[in-house]
């Protein structure tokens, strides 16, 4: 979906030669900025599902250990598939660079909850360990609250 959306919105504009005045070597670098259209496509994508992951590969066959770790953590929380959407950035180089500019975060994977950037692998792992991830997923009704689940189980039995 997003891939074709991206193809339609291309090319991203390039603005060039910002001098790095802080560098002792004063190198000129090319900087790339997201077009408004590409930004709005990403904005739509991250809000279209409660949980959105930009990763390398897909949940069944991740192509990088960092992406794999994020998927495994989300699996531990039993995130239902319908609540989660993943995008394989290896299939779309524009998305791969665009998402980094969007979040101002330089790496993949990237996890979004309720349209907000949460973090990459390290942050998600820390949040998992501290219990914050569970709280966040519960807060946005991505997974049931433990208490709600216990009630549902009691009613079912
Ligand atoms: N410390 C990072 C690890 C992720 C990372 O370093 N990703 C690299 C290698 S997969 C990356 O995205 N590099 C840029 C790219 O491949 O586009 C995190 O917490 O997510
Ligand atoms: S693809 Fe090499 S570390 Fe992610």
From TrEMBL:
GO molecular function, one term: metal ion binding
UniProt keyword Iron-sulfur present: yes
Keywords linked to the UniProt accession: 2Fe-2S, Iron, Iron-sulfur, Metal-binding, Redox-active center
Biological process according to GO: [2Fe-2S] cluster assembly
Pfam families: Glutaredoxin
Domain of life: Eukaryota
InterPro entries listed in its UniProt record: Glutaredoxin (IPR002109), GRX_PICOT-like (IPR033658), Monothiol_GRX-rel (IPR004480), Thioredoxin-like_sf (IPR036249)
GO cellular component, one term: mitochondrial matrix
Ranges for domain Glutaredoxin: 52-118
Residue ranges of the TM segments: none
Keyword Metal-binding listed: yes
Protein name as annotated: Monothiol glutaredoxin-5, mitochondrial
Classification of source organism: Eukaryota, Fungi, Dikarya, Basidiomycota, Agaricomycotina
């Amino acid at each position: 979906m997003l891939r074709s959306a991206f193809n339609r919105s291309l090319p991203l504009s390039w603005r060039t030669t910002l001098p790095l005045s802080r560098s002792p070597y004063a190198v000129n670098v090319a900087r790339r900025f997201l077009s408004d259209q590409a930004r709005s496509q990403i904005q739509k994508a991250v809000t279209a599902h409660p949980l959105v992951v930009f990763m390398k590969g897909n949940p069944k066959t991740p192509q990088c250990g960092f992406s794999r770790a994020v998927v495994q953590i989300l699996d531990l929380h039993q995130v239902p598939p319908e609540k989660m959407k993943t995008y394989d950035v290896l299939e779309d180089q524009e998305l791969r660079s665009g998402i980094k500019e969007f979040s101002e975060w330089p790496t993949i994977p990237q996890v979004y909850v309720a349209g907000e950037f949460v973090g990459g692998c390290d942050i998600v792992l820390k949040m998992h360990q501290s219990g914050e991830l569970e709280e966040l997923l519960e807060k946005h009704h991505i997974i049931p609250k433990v208490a709600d689940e216990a009630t549902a189980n009691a009613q079912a039995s």
